[in-house]
Amino acid sequence: MNDGIRIRPIGEDDWDAIAALESAAYAGLGLSEGEAALRSRCAVSPGTCFALDVESCLAGYMLTLPYPAFRFPDLERPEPSARPDAPDTRNLHLHDIVVAGRLRRRGLAQRLLRHLTLTARSRGYERISLVSVGDNEGFWSARGFTRHPEVVPPGSYGTQAVYMSKPVRSE
Length: 171
Description:
Layout (H helix, E strand, L loop, with lengths): L4 E5 L5 H12 L8 H10 L5 E5 L2 E10 L24 E9 L8 H15 L4 E6 L4 H5 L4 E2 L14 E6 L4
Parallel strand pairs: 4-5
Antiparallel strand pairs: 1-2, 2-3, 3-4, 5-7, 6-7
């Protein structure tokens, strides 16, 4: 079935649009990182970062990278190109997922999440983690993520930040 929706690897020509989508989604929360930081996160694990096309136009993206469980990227600086603390982790951290505002509530984020789960499973990851920001904890809970109250993200993630994770189930 071809419904005009495609999930693909992020390409060099996508970054201006990704930066614009990220700014639109997070600047109002004071959480916009900018293009250099976004690129640095993708560079750690380009095979787990994806662009979402709708009718051949970039409509969203997802940045995920291996990260130790109960830890998360520092929003105040780009990801180091060579992370000395990057152990062989079985945790894949969903750092960022954005769908263009005009296309929300159409199941596109859910498609990205299904793609992420399949990717995580095929690469041997056991958990997917994230930091929920804004007022989105309910969205993530409805998708199987559980809050870890013992892990408190720093203030740079905002006052409503909640660390969450879920197992990657073999189905």
